[in-house]
Specification:
2 domains; 254 residues; single chain; Growth Hormone, Chain: A; mainly alpha; 12 helices
Length: 254
Protein backbone atom coordinates (compact mmCIF):
# COMPACT_ATOMS: atom_id res chain seq x y z
CA UNK A 1 0.00 0.00 0.00
CA UNK A 2 2.85 2.43 0.72
CA UNK A 3 4.81 1.39 -2.37
CA UNK A 4 2.88 3.29 -5.06
CA UNK A 5 2.93 6.72 -3.36
CA UNK A 6 6.63 6.36 -2.55
CA UNK A 7 7.44 5.41 -6.15
CA UNK A 8 5.30 8.24 -7.50
CA UNK A 9 7.04 10.77 -5.26
CA UNK A 10 10.48 9.44 -6.23
CA UNK A 11 9.58 9.45 -9.94
CA UNK A 12 8.64 13.10 -9.67
CA UNK A 13 12.03 14.00 -8.15
CA UNK A 14 14.49 11.50 -9.66
CA UNK A 15 15.30 10.09 -13.12
CA UNK A 16 13.07 7.15 -14.08
CA UNK A 17 16.09 4.86 -14.46
CA UNK A 18 17.14 5.48 -10.87
CA UNK A 19 13.60 4.77 -9.65
CA UNK A 20 13.43 1.53 -11.67
CA UNK A 21 16.73 0.30 -10.23
CA UNK A 22 15.56 1.29 -6.74
CA UNK A 23 12.35 -0.70 -7.10
CA UNK A 24 14.29 -3.72 -8.34
CA UNK A 25 16.74 -3.45 -5.45
CA UNK A 26 13.85 -3.24 -2.98
CA UNK A 27 12.32 -6.42 -4.42
CA UNK A 28 15.64 -8.27 -4.16
CA UNK A 29 16.15 -7.02 -0.59
CA UNK A 30 12.64 -8.13 0.36
CA UNK A 31 13.18 -11.58 -1.09
CA UNK A 32 16.53 -11.92 0.68
CA UNK A 33 14.93 -10.83 3.95
CA UNK A 34 12.23 -13.50 3.65
CA UNK A 35 14.87 -16.12 2.86
CA UNK A 36 16.90 -15.14 5.93
CA UNK A 37 13.90 -15.02 8.26
CA UNK A 38 12.56 -18.29 6.81
CA UNK A 39 9.06 -17.98 8.31
CA UNK A 40 7.31 -21.29 9.11
CA UNK A 41 4.80 -22.64 6.60
CA UNK A 42 2.95 -24.84 9.08
CA UNK A 43 1.34 -24.37 12.47
CA UNK A 44 2.94 -25.77 15.60
CA UNK A 45 0.38 -28.57 15.80
CA UNK A 46 1.09 -29.68 12.20
CA UNK A 47 3.75 -32.35 12.21
CA UNK A 48 6.29 -32.17 9.36
CA UNK A 49 5.51 -34.75 6.70
CA UNK A 50 8.04 -37.14 5.26
CA UNK A 51 8.74 -36.96 1.50
CA UNK A 52 6.83 -40.22 1.07
CA UNK A 53 3.76 -38.64 2.68
CA UNK A 54 3.67 -35.74 0.24
CA UNK A 55 0.21 -35.74 -1.40
CA UNK A 56 -0.09 -35.88 -5.15
CA UNK A 57 -0.71 -32.54 -6.80
CA UNK A 58 -4.14 -33.53 -8.08
CA UNK A 59 -5.22 -34.22 -4.50
CA UNK A 60 -4.93 -30.57 -3.46
CA UNK A 61 -4.74 -28.62 -6.73
CA UNK A 62 -8.44 -29.04 -7.39
CA UNK A 63 -11.25 -26.68 -8.39
CA UNK A 64 -11.18 -24.76 -5.12
CA UNK A 65 -7.44 -24.06 -5.25
CA UNK A 66 -7.70 -23.12 -8.92
CA UNK A 67 -10.54 -20.79 -7.92
CA UNK A 68 -8.24 -19.05 -5.43
CA UNK A 69 -5.52 -18.66 -8.07
CA UNK A 70 -8.00 -17.20 -10.55
CA UNK A 71 -9.22 -14.73 -7.95
CA UNK A 72 -5.64 -13.78 -7.01
CA UNK A 73 -5.00 -13.05 -10.68
CA UNK A 74 -8.14 -10.91 -10.90
CA UNK A 75 -7.46 -9.06 -7.65
CA UNK A 76 -4.07 -7.83 -8.80
CA UNK A 77 -5.51 -6.67 -12.11
CA UNK A 78 -7.98 -4.57 -10.12
CA UNK A 79 -5.34 -3.11 -7.82
CA UNK A 80 -2.71 -2.47 -10.49
CA UNK A 81 -5.30 -1.16 -12.92
CA UNK A 82 -6.65 1.21 -10.29
CA UNK A 83 -3.21 2.76 -9.75
CA UNK A 84 -2.83 3.28 -13.49
CA UNK A 85 -6.32 4.76 -13.89
CA UNK A 86 -5.72 7.13 -10.96
CA UNK A 87 -2.60 8.54 -12.61
CA UNK A 88 -4.41 8.81 -15.96
CA UNK A 89 -7.31 10.70 -14.35
CA UNK A 90 -4.98 13.14 -12.60
CA UNK A 91 -2.95 13.64 -15.76
CA UNK A 92 -6.09 14.50 -17.68
CA UNK A 93 -7.06 16.97 -14.95
CA UNK A 94 -3.56 18.45 -14.74
CA UNK A 95 -3.21 17.30 -11.13
CA UNK A 96 -0.50 14.64 -11.32
CA UNK A 97 1.24 16.17 -8.31
CA UNK A 98 -1.68 14.94 -6.17
CA UNK A 99 -1.20 11.30 -7.17
CA UNK A 100 0.75 10.41 -4.03
CA UNK A 101 -2.00 11.88 -1.83
CA UNK A 102 -4.74 9.92 -3.62
CA UNK A 103 -2.83 6.63 -3.44
CA UNK A 104 -1.92 7.31 0.20
CA UNK A 105 -5.61 7.76 1.04
CA UNK A 106 -6.34 4.50 -0.77
CA UNK A 107 -3.62 2.78 1.23
CA UNK A 108 -4.84 4.19 4.55
CA UNK A 109 -8.35 2.99 3.77
CA UNK A 110 -6.95 -0.43 2.94
CA UNK A 111 -5.14 -0.62 6.28
CA UNK A 112 -8.34 0.37 8.08
CA UNK A 113 -10.27 -2.25 6.11
CA UNK A 114 -7.72 -4.90 7.00
CA UNK A 115 -8.02 -4.10 10.71
CA UNK A 116 -11.81 -4.16 10.58
CA UNK A 117 -11.79 -7.42 8.65
CA UNK A 118 -9.44 -8.99 11.16
CA UNK A 119 -11.85 -8.10 13.95
CA UNK A 120 -14.78 -9.95 12.36
CA UNK A 121 -15.88 -13.09 14.23
CA UNK A 122 -15.76 -15.14 11.01
CA UNK A 123 -14.24 -14.46 7.57
CA UNK A 124 -16.30 -13.46 4.55
CA UNK A 125 -16.28 -15.47 1.31
CA UNK A 126 -13.30 -14.60 -0.85
CA UNK A 127 -15.37 -14.33 -4.02
CA UNK A 128 -17.70 -11.87 -2.28
CA UNK A 129 -14.86 -9.59 -1.17
CA UNK A 130 -13.32 -9.59 -4.65
CA UNK A 131 -16.69 -9.00 -6.30
CA UNK A 132 -17.38 -6.02 -4.03
CA UNK A 133 -13.89 -4.66 -4.71
CA UNK A 134 -14.51 -4.82 -8.44
CA UNK A 135 -17.98 -3.32 -8.05
CA UNK A 136 -16.88 -0.26 -6.07
CA UNK A 137 -13.90 0.32 -8.39
CA UNK A 138 -16.08 0.96 -11.45
CA UNK A 139 -17.76 4.20 -10.18
CA UNK A 140 -14.33 5.73 -9.51
CA UNK A 141 -14.31 6.55 -13.22
CA UNK A 142 -16.86 9.29 -12.50
CA UNK A 143 -14.25 11.22 -10.49
CA UNK A 144 -12.51 13.99 -12.39
CA UNK A 145 -10.23 15.55 -9.76
CA UNK A 146 -8.10 14.42 -6.85
CA UNK A 147 -10.73 15.15 -4.19
CA UNK A 148 -13.33 12.81 -5.66
CA UNK A 149 -10.64 10.23 -6.34
CA UNK A 150 -9.86 10.27 -2.62
CA UNK A 151 -13.53 9.66 -1.86
CA UNK A 152 -13.69 6.80 -4.36
CA UNK A 153 -10.40 5.41 -3.06
CA UNK A 154 -11.79 5.15 0.46
CA UNK A 155 -14.56 2.83 -0.71
CA UNK A 156 -12.31 0.60 -2.80
CA UNK A 157 -9.44 0.72 -0.34
CA UNK A 158 -11.55 -0.68 2.49
CA UNK A 159 -11.84 -3.94 0.51
CA UNK A 160 -8.28 -4.21 -0.83
CA UNK A 161 -6.46 -5.64 2.20
CA UNK A 162 -9.36 -7.91 3.24
CA UNK A 163 -9.43 -9.41 -0.26
CA UNK A 164 -5.70 -10.13 -0.30
CA UNK A 165 -5.86 -11.48 3.25
CA UNK A 166 -8.75 -13.80 2.37
CA UNK A 167 -6.81 -15.12 -0.64
CA UNK A 168 -3.77 -15.98 1.46
CA UNK A 169 -5.93 -17.55 4.14
CA UNK A 170 -7.71 -19.69 1.55
CA UNK A 171 -4.40 -21.00 0.19
CA UNK A 172 -3.17 -21.94 3.67
CA UNK A 173 -6.44 -23.72 4.43
CA UNK A 174 -6.62 -25.66 1.17
CA UNK A 175 -2.97 -26.74 0.91
CA UNK A 176 -1.61 -29.47 3.20
CA UNK A 177 1.41 -28.39 5.25
CA UNK A 178 3.79 -30.54 3.19
CA UNK A 179 2.97 -28.68 -0.05
CA UNK A 180 2.18 -25.24 1.34
CA UNK A 181 5.38 -23.78 -0.07
CA UNK A 182 4.44 -24.93 -3.56
CA UNK A 183 0.91 -23.61 -3.10
CA UNK A 184 2.09 -20.18 -1.98
CA UNK A 185 4.47 -20.17 -4.94
CA UNK A 186 1.52 -20.74 -7.27
CA UNK A 187 -0.32 -17.93 -5.52
CA UNK A 188 2.66 -15.63 -6.01
CA UNK A 189 2.77 -16.55 -9.70
CA UNK A 190 -0.94 -15.75 -10.06
CA UNK A 191 -0.43 -12.40 -8.35
CA UNK A 192 2.56 -11.64 -10.58
CA UNK A 193 0.61 -12.55 -13.71
CA UNK A 194 -2.15 -10.17 -12.66
CA UNK A 195 0.34 -7.36 -12.15
CA UNK A 196 2.04 -8.07 -15.48
CA UNK A 197 -1.18 -8.20 -17.51
CA UNK A 198 -3.07 -5.55 -15.58
CA UNK A 199 -1.05 -2.66 -17.02
CA UNK A 200 -1.49 -3.47 -20.76
CA UNK A 201 -5.15 -4.46 -20.32
CA UNK A 202 -6.16 -1.38 -18.34
CA UNK A 203 -3.74 0.83 -20.29
CA UNK A 204 -5.36 -0.21 -23.54
CA UNK A 205 -8.78 0.63 -22.12
CA UNK A 206 -7.52 4.06 -21.03
CA UNK A 207 -6.11 4.74 -24.50
CA UNK A 208 -9.43 3.73 -26.06
CA UNK A 209 -12.01 5.29 -23.75
CA UNK A 210 -10.16 7.44 -21.22
CA UNK A 211 -9.53 6.98 -17.49
CA UNK A 212 -13.15 6.00 -16.82
CA UNK A 213 -12.65 3.04 -19.14
CA UNK A 214 -9.61 2.03 -17.13
CA UNK A 215 -11.55 1.93 -13.88
CA UNK A 216 -14.39 0.06 -15.57
CA UNK A 217 -12.02 -2.51 -17.07
CA UNK A 218 -10.24 -3.08 -13.77
CA UNK A 219 -13.53 -3.43 -11.90
CA UNK A 220 -15.05 -5.78 -14.48
CA UNK A 221 -11.92 -7.94 -14.37
CA UNK A 222 -12.42 -8.29 -10.62
CA UNK A 223 -16.08 -9.17 -11.05
CA UNK A 224 -15.27 -11.75 -13.73
CA UNK A 225 -12.60 -13.37 -11.54
CA UNK A 226 -14.99 -13.43 -8.57
CA UNK A 227 -17.68 -15.10 -10.68
CA UNK A 228 -15.23 -17.69 -12.00
CA UNK A 229 -13.99 -18.35 -8.49
CA UNK A 230 -17.54 -18.86 -7.23
CA UNK A 231 -18.41 -21.19 -10.10
CA UNK A 232 -15.26 -23.28 -9.64
CA UNK A 233 -15.85 -23.49 -5.92
CA UNK A 234 -19.33 -24.90 -6.42
CA UNK A 235 -17.79 -27.91 -8.18
CA UNK A 236 -16.29 -29.09 -4.88
CA UNK A 237 -17.97 -31.85 -2.88
CA UNK A 238 -20.49 -30.71 -0.25
CA UNK A 239 -18.48 -32.30 2.54
CA UNK A 240 -15.45 -30.17 1.60
CA UNK A 241 -17.49 -26.99 1.63
CA UNK A 242 -18.73 -27.78 5.12
CA UNK A 243 -15.19 -28.23 6.33
CA UNK A 244 -14.29 -24.69 5.26
CA UNK A 245 -17.40 -22.50 5.07
CA UNK A 246 -15.37 -19.29 5.13
CA UNK A 247 -14.24 -19.75 1.54
CA UNK A 248 -17.68 -20.21 -0.05
CA UNK A 249 -19.99 -18.62 2.46
CA UNK A 250 -22.32 -19.79 5.16
CA UNK A 251 -25.28 -20.20 2.81
CA UNK A 252 -23.41 -22.67 0.57
CA UNK A 253 -22.06 -24.57 3.57
CA UNK A 254 -25.59 -25.09 4.85
Amino acid sequence: MVGPPIVILCAAQLPSGVVAWGVGAAIVAGGAGIALLNPPLRAEDEAPAAPADRPRRREWLGPRMIAVLVMAFGATIVLNGTDLAIVATLKEAGQVSWAAVVVAVYGAASIAGGLLYGALPRPLPTWLLLGLLGLVTIPAGLAHDWRWLCVAGCGAGLLAAPTLSALSDAVSRLAPASVRGEATGLQSSALGAGFALGVPIVGGAIDTSGPAGGFATAGLAGLAAALMGWLLSRRSPIRTLRSDPSFIGASDAR
